[in-house]
Amino acid sequence: MPVLRTPVLLLASALLLTACGGGSTPDTAKAALTIDNCGHEVTLKSAPKRVVSLNQGTTEILLSLGLADRVVGTATWTDPVMKGLEKANASVPRLADDMPSFEKVLDAEPDFVTASFVSTLGKGGVATREQFEKLGVPTYVSPSDCGAGKDNDSGGDGSRATPLTLDDVYGEIRDLARAFGVDKRGEKLVAELKERVRKATDGLDASDVSLMYWFANSQSPYLAGCCGAPGAITRAVGAKNAFSDTHDEWPQINWETVADRDPDVLVIGDLTRKQQTAESAKAKIRFLETNPATRNLTAVKKKRYVLLSGQAMNPSIRTVEGIEQVAAGLRDFGLVK
């Protein structure tokens, strides 16, 4: 295993970073910086030059901030990269489609490690934050997963006492922009996302419409509870979530219960990974239209399907994409006032 460059990189001057060229030149030279990340102090002595992003969500934020030349590894993907980022992503090494080993990450010689989920950067994941930090590598986890209101120890994908908001996603963008000294880019990106939400939901009234979000698995489907990214999408379009009575992030609910609630629209995850049954939208729709418990659902008979990437159904920059697509689908189905 190569020797980590971390001590050298963390002590490099911010002035040297401004001379790196390319798209990731900082807006201003940065001295030491400390970020409060879910009660965990992340101290950076200078802007990172070799970041490993352990989830697609954090990777897409870094790429959107023009930091592709700083990303030396990415992993754990559910979908093709977000449109517009294909060229930037092509230059980033894919350490693994799923979770890489701790050793594989260390081989990339990171000076900073980011993740979207505690399950990736924590017990049972690639490694704990403490394992990286003992080696002098600071870490960051998306506040949408480790922040106030999220209980990751409650089983499954965790639960939320309070609903996720887009401000949690915007906060992650701002944190990462600060870490790399590109604060102005972060503010510009947040402003663009807010404007996209405004345009997508302007004049939308879907208060009589119920939605059900299906992420994966046909035998014991993972359906969205009240308060994760699907909850943020549902509130933005003014609709109702068929399973808003559960605070679990992705509870597994039987199809008989789904039939009882008979949602107006099915929001379906179109995943490219191969971990669960019925990952792709095509496989999900085939199941829905042939299974006795689901083929008579109103949404199935009327083919009211909205297809979303897995990333849009997770707390991420693409949750905004989810709002746009659900809003467009509701308008297409003639379900909005």
Automatic annotation (TrEMBL):
<feature type="domain" description="Fe/B12 periplasmic-binding">
    <location>
        <begin position="50"/>
        <end position="337"/>
    </location>
</feature>
<dbReference type="Pfam" id="PF01497">
    <property type="entry name" value="Peripla_BP_2"/>
</dbReference>
<dbReference type="InterPro" id="IPR002491">
    <property type="entry name" value="ABC_transptr_periplasmic_BD"/>
</dbReference>
<keyword id="KW-0732">Signal</keyword>
<protein>
    <submittedName>
        <fullName>ABC transporter substrate-binding protein</fullName>
    </submittedName>
</protein>
<dbReference type="InterPro" id="IPR050902">
    <property type="entry name" value="ABC_Transporter_SBP"/>
</dbReference>
<feature type="signal peptide">
    <location>
        <begin position="1"/>
        <end position="19"/>
    </location>
</feature>
<feature type="region of interest" description="Disordered">
    <location>
        <begin position="143"/>
        <end position="162"/>
    </location>
</feature>
<comment type="similarity">
    <text>Belongs to the bacterial solute-binding protein 8 family.</text>
</comment>
